[in-house]
Give the backbone structure.
Amino acid sequence: MDIITGELAGAIASFFAILIYLPQLIKTVRTRRTRDISFLFLIFIVLCNIAWAFNGVLTNSPSRLFSAIVIILMTIPMMIIKIKNLEQDKISEESIL
């Protein structure tokens, strides 16, 4: 596979990787509800995409670098909302018990 074909395949994969996160980001921002989203999951998304961004730099893959940065930027608002909701979620869990 030549570099152009590989980068095109990477761009298509990057598009879908970004698309995966979009519905959850929209729902989280609209509803401000994060109770069912694991904070550890969000941390792993960021760490994974930092690694992919680093890999994109090392392999000179703009599509991999771009998608990793976009996914990190899409995850940060969910993390901020989750942090703001941590105390509220804890109160809600205690009231159920």
